Amino acid sequence: MYPAHNFDTGAQPPTFGPHFNPTQQQPYLPLQDPLIQGADPTSPEVFRQSIANVQEQVIQLQSCARRVLSGIQNAYQAGNCPAHTKADISTLKQILELTIDIMRSSGVGALPVLPGPTSPGGIPPVPTEQQLTERTQQSLKRFFDQVLRHQESAATAANLLSAENIGKVGK
């Protein structure tokens, strides 16, 4: 059995700046954005702004997830504070909930999240149909190869077990 550790020091978790306050979190409504107030909720401008908001949230989510992963990987290193990792995990959960809320309320949630523009003011790269077809074919080939390896492994294990049983019966 593993020893029980209580890492909770009773100290307040670190704050992550004024941009994220979980106690004052409200549901995201795309029309609350000052840039698109008074705009038609079905307009392309509102949709573009919603996509940009989701991309920003995904970047924050990735950053927080990296902090959590680093905290977990270095959990037993000297100088690592479990309270910080605990706070990062809590923040990650909250950012994830906010991102889900933004994606649901804006209508962007059904779309794939593409990487943002490579340069300021640039247009994000949109894959062509041929690129999507190639990606899908590569993905299916990897999946097929994986299933084939599993089947071969299962067949080998079954052969070994049946050979063992035949050897025991013959003795």
Describe this structure in words.
This protein has 171 residues and is an all-alpha fold. The chain folds into two domains: 22-106; 126-171. Helices cover 57% and strands 0% of the residues. It has three helices and no strands. Helix 1 packs antiparallel against helix 2 (82-106). The longest helix is centred in the last third of the chain and has 42 residues, at 129-170. It is flat and about 80 Å long. The chain starts with 43 loop residues before the first helix and ends with a helix. The model is unreliable at 1-31 (pLDDT under 50).
Q: Topology, please?
A:
Elements: H1 44-73, H2 82-106, H3 129-170
Helix pairs in contact: 1-2
Biased composition (Low complexity): 24-37
Region (Disordered): 1-42
Oligomer type: single chain
**Count of individual helical segments:** 3
Give the termini distance in whole angstroms.
41 Å
How does the major sheet shape up? none
Question: Helicity level, as a percent range?
Answer: 55-70%
- Mean pLDDT, rounded to whole units? 76
Rg, Cα atoms, Å: 25 Å
Total count of strands = 0
The assigned structural class equals mainly alpha
- Beta-strand residue fraction: under 5%
Low-confidence stretches: 1-31
One letter per element, helices H and strands E, the order comes to: HHH
Outline type: flat
What is the domain total for the residues? 2
Region (Disordered): 1-42
Biased composition (Low complexity): 24-37
